[in-house]
């Protein structure tokens, strides 16, 4: 006997997991996260280099300093905020010091502790570059549409779970 719903269901998988994209495997989700990060990073880095003579890492360091109390932060605080090693943040700060965008200062209470402080030129450069960065990121992330809040919340949970515990 032929059931009417069989004709409608012909060729449609019964298991949602068999539908590509319906229930992605962890490897697929990981690939998409890496691709999105790499592609957005490349696009934003290229735009910042072209228009402001800054790498994305340099821009992020300047922005973190601009948002820090007194526009200064320790190398450890910058490394943590940027997700860089101490050597990586030192290299970035060295370039910014050479360009006159940042100064190095010793902490008053502990002369061993080194801080980076934004200069007036650094403040001007980060202010100019912020529009380019923010507009391009907003344009690219607008592709999330109504899912933006859901994706942001989900990624925040994963980020929190993956955070290095000290």
Set down the secondary structure blueprint.
Blueprint: H1 4-9, H2 26-52, H3 56-67, E1 72-74, H4 75-82, H5 86-98, E2 102-106, E3 114-118, H6 120-141, H7 148-162
Antiparallel strand pairs: 1-3, 2-3
Describe the strand arrangement of the main beta sheet, using strand numbers: 1-3-2
Oligomer: single chain
Rg (C-alpha, Å): 23 Å
What's the helix count?
Answer: 7
Structural category is mainly alpha
- The helix fraction, in percent, is 55-70%
CATH-scheme architecture of the domain at 52-142: Orthogonal Bundle
CATH topology of the domain at 52-142: Arc Repressor Mutant, subunit A
Question: Could you name the CATH class of the domain at 52-142?
Answer: Mainly Alpha
Share of β-strand residues? 5-15%
The SSE string, one letter per element, is HHHEHHEEHH
| Spatial gap, N to C terminus | 66 Å
Report the average pLDDT across residues.
87
- The beta-strand count equals 3
**Poorly predicted runs:** none
| Largest β sheet strand count, sense and barrel closure | 3 strands, antiparallel
CATH superfamily of the domain at 52-142, please? Winged helix-like DNA-binding domain superfamily/Winged helix DNA-binding domain
